[in-house]
Design a protein that fits this description.
Number of helices: 9
Bound molecules: pyridoxal-5'-phosphate
Low-confidence stretches: none
CATH class: Alpha Beta
CATH topology: TIM Barrel
Mean pLDDT: 96
Keywords: Pyridoxal phosphate
Strand order of the largest sheet: 7-6-5-4-3-2-1-8
Radius of gyration: 17 Å
Function: Pyridoxal 5'-phosphate (PLP)-binding protein, which is involved in PLP homeostasis.
Protein name: Pyridoxal phosphate homeostasis protein
Helix content: 25-40%
Order of helices and strands: HEHEHEHEHEHEHEHEH
Family: Belongs to the pyridoxal phosphate-binding protein YggS/PROSC family.
Distance between the termini: 24 Å
InterPro entries: Ala_racemase_N (IPR001608), PLP-binding_barrel (IPR029066), PyrdxlP_homeostasis (IPR011078)
Number of domains: 1
Strand content: 15-25%
Length: 225
């Protein structure tokens, strides 16, 4: 199966979920494979390292929409700002303020998702329910004129137990629905839910995902050297 064949399969599955888009996660993969996906019509790509994203963005066509899906350190935001379309992994007010500052320098508004902790694993990043509330309803968010919060992102527990995964995605969707009904600052418009990867995207789509982040099912397994 080529990258183009895999993308075709995803397109046909996604046709049943018109609100959902595919982010092709190209981390660790060579430019040639990204070009293959681009030739096949793919425009949304996801990377988890700032340097890798900016290097690839420099080499590839300018109409690609780059998604930062990995944990982001404040001191790297300045390199990312000129290239990024959507940051999925915002997990603190401190990071959000830095994104706002760098976006202002570039005369842009950067769209962000708040990463919410939904898994039962220690290592996953994200805001818990109380932190999410404090950030969304706190005093500081309305002043950030160069960011826009457009939704939430979550990663389910890495388990074979589909019910656990489904419940975690359902929980994120419930939070999303809850905050859609709340009065939120003008720079918050909740429309995207980023959830689902190669192993669990089907469940995520059924539970209301609007952005699935799929790597290995498109580009093949990754080798970490
Ligand atoms: C790597 C990664 C993915 C894609 O993982 P696959 O299992 O290869 O589809 C999705 N989301 C995040 C945050 C990732 O780091």
């Amino acid at each position: 199966m080529s990258v183009a064949d895999n993308l075709d399969l995803f397109r046909s599955q996604l046709s049943k979920f018109p609100q959902s888009k595919l982010v092709a996660v190209s981390k660790t993969k060579p430019i040639a494979l990204l070009e293959e996906a681009y030739q096949a019509g793919q425009r949304h790509f996801g990377e988890n390292k700032v340097q890798e994203m900016t290097e690839k963005a420099e080499k590839l066509p300018k109409d690609i929409q780059w998604h930062m899906i990995g944990h982001l350190q404040s001191n790297k935001v300045k390199y990312l700002a000129p290239y990024v379309y959507l940051i999925h992994s915002v997990d603190s007010l401190k990071l959000l303020k830095e994104i706002d500052k760098q976006a202002a320098k570039n005369h842009q508004v950067i769209s962000c998702l708040l990463q919410v902790y939904i898994a039962k694993e220690e290592s996953k990043f994200g805001l818990d329910e109380a932190e999410l509330r404090d950030l969304l309803l706190g005093d500081e968010l309305p002043a950030l004129a160069h960011i826009k919060i457009v939704g939430f992102m979550g990663m389910a527990t890495n388990t074979e137990n589909q019910q656990v995964v489904r419940n975690e995605f359902r929980y994120l969707k419930e939070l999303f629905d809850h905050y859609q009904r709340e009065e939120l600052p003008a720079n918050v418009t909740l429309k995207e839910i980023s959830m689902g990867m190669s192993g669990d995207y089907q469940i995520a789509l059924e539970e209301g995902s609007t952005l699935i982040r799929v790597g290995s099912a498109i580009f093949g397994e990754r080798n970490y050297l």
